Amino acid sequence: MSIASIQVSETPLVLYALRRADDALILGHRLSEWCGHAPMLEEDMALANMGLDLLGQARELYSYAAEVEGKGNDEDKFAYLRDVRQYRNLLLLEQPNGDFAHTMVRQFFYSGFADLYWRAMMKSDDAILAAIAAKSEKESAYHIRHSSEWIVRLGDGTAESHRRAQSAIDDLWAYTGEMFEADDSEWALIEAGVAVDPATLRSHWLKTVTDVVGEATLSLPKNDWMQQGGRSGRHSEHLGHLLSELQSMPRTFPGATW
Amino acid sequence: MVTALLDDTALRQQAWDIAAGVVDPEIPVLTIADLGVLRDVAVTDGRVEVAITPTYSGCPAMNMIQLEIELALEREGFRGAKVRTVLSPAWTTDWMSEEGRRKLRDYGIAPPAAGSSRRALFGVQEVACPQCGSVNTEVLAEFGSTSCKALWRCKSCREPFDYFRCH
User: Fold this and answer.
1) Which residue in A46, A48, A57 is closest to B142 by CB distance?
2) ipTM score of the complex?
3) A238: which of A137, B6, B99, B125 is 20 to 30 A away, CA to CA?
């Protein structure tokens, strides 16, 4: 037995909160997959801690989306009872962990963005989003610091770690453009002072990324063709597999508690 | 015990004192008042509502703290107390009391740097060893045993110690 997905009334603010919640949940879940498998104990704890921060952010954002929507949904229903096409996270964040370099480059690209994004969102006219931002920006600051150090360590390390880090950058680069996109539903919120225009963050992000990648003796791809689709529910094949694991218990045993 | 003779103001003080005595399950020397997590206590018609503010977004201790507050009030005769979470303004380690910082240090955890600014996060961190007071210390792991801690080591007395990260 399995149970049907929920319906979501995607008003601009509900959709906006869900997209950010999905970002945090999906990346948090990916990081949790490392638990017990990281190259060393300290890194195992770091990855789990970062995943926990993201899970916490997701919970606050889902709860807020549920409150705004007012249709009886809650954080658990949003996480467990939506199908792939209802998920609105960035494609970057659902990409498989790959090797440690891929995980760290994914983290670095996203945390560099999240750090700027949450800092800007602290000025949101929406008091709850501003409060979630005030917390998340500090957590993102720890994440960007940690992942930056690893990019330098890997790039400027051995020939093998350099090769792997460069390969991760090349593989994931095309997913970074989506972070700076906004569609019509978001524009309404940007004009109302609730959301920030992510495109305004790009030059600062690119400078940070270029500096760290340079220090790591790595390079960014010249190709700037960018993949997109996550924000509108068009995902890579990887998200379905992730959700089947994340959702299997509540889908198989509806309402189960322990 | 709650009696009809106590008015809401007196009840509020009583309920506040009870809630303020609840400790962090991970750091049992700190009360939620020391942490700055206890935000408000309201009494309406004898019903207590406690407002708390979450610390780190994913901190699992928050659920425990909520339960502990409800139980502590129940034990003292406040039936059906409610705990609600207030997100705004966001909690910061700057809200930790001086008393809380002292208790942390005595417990063997270096208290968070004052001023949870980005400078404190990204500048040169100077963390004093809670055992010997030396600032000749080094970070071993940025992410420690709980969301709020990093693992450090004192190069003077050689003791490893937890540092409560600024947030």
Assistant:
1) A46
2) 0.86
3) A137
